[in-house]
Target: ABC transporter ATP-binding protein
Amino acid sequence: MRLRVSDVSKRFEGVTAVNSVSLDCSAGEIVGLIGPNGAGKTTLLNMISSLLDVDAGEITIDGRAVHNIGPRRTAIGGIARTFQNIRLFANLTVRQNIEVAFTTARRHRASALGSVTIERLMEQWGVAEFADRKASELSYGTQRRVEIARALALAPDFLLLDEPTAGMVEGESQDLVKAIMAIREWKGCGVIVIDHDLSFITSVCERIYVLDMGSLVASGPPSVLRDDPKVAEIYLGRKARRRLEEGTDEHRQSRQ
Ligand SMILES: Nc1ncnc2c1ncn2[C@@H]1O[C@H](COP(=O)(O)OP(=O)(O)OP(=O)(O)O)[C@@H](O)[C@H]1O
Model:
């Protein structure tokens, strides 16, 4: 199974947020989407999950068009996601949050769901001990895991993760690397993940796409970050400039 984004564009009043971007993700693959703030990453994920309509281009799963169909039909069609700002039902328990998605999957994606149960999902994602606690009572890292478990309760063919390590402490994001790698065991579910934490992205992804100012500037294995001069300019160039502007110890010392 293959999710394919072909020449997709999106404009917001005078701003071209996404400019003719193409990418693909196969079943069982973990693909990263990186780029500076405002590069267009979330807008692209919003189009793949049909929260936003594309202005041009198309998005397909095995040739079947899945763009501009609305988020509910997209979820039923096999694409689930998490959000940059966690969107759990705060007053529902962990079990109830997962049950909402599970009920939809049982009705519309029974064969993809197979023998999966809510209990198994909670165990797999290390949240079983919080099953009867309200989502709002949980730590940030635990809420993230619940959100991923809920997305997986839709038995998706493709999972989109928008900045899963945001707000996590280091130990939590390392645990998340293992957990996301385990998703591929999920009946070969493909994963597209956005994150600013480059060590997390390079640990978890086989391939990376780099966006800058709405356009795709590079793609390839994680080594593309180191080896592609355009990417080095975007990341290292800006980082070096920021260090200079901030006058870090390193630069202060080198000036002495
Ligand atoms: N609803 C909107 N209305 C107007 N402009 C928008 C809207 N959503 C995004 N944009 C603009 O589109 C561009 C891309 O934004 P987007 O949020 O997709 O970037 P991003 O790469 O996800 O950034 P970040 O890493 O900060 O989340 C930015 O210039 C942003 O201001």
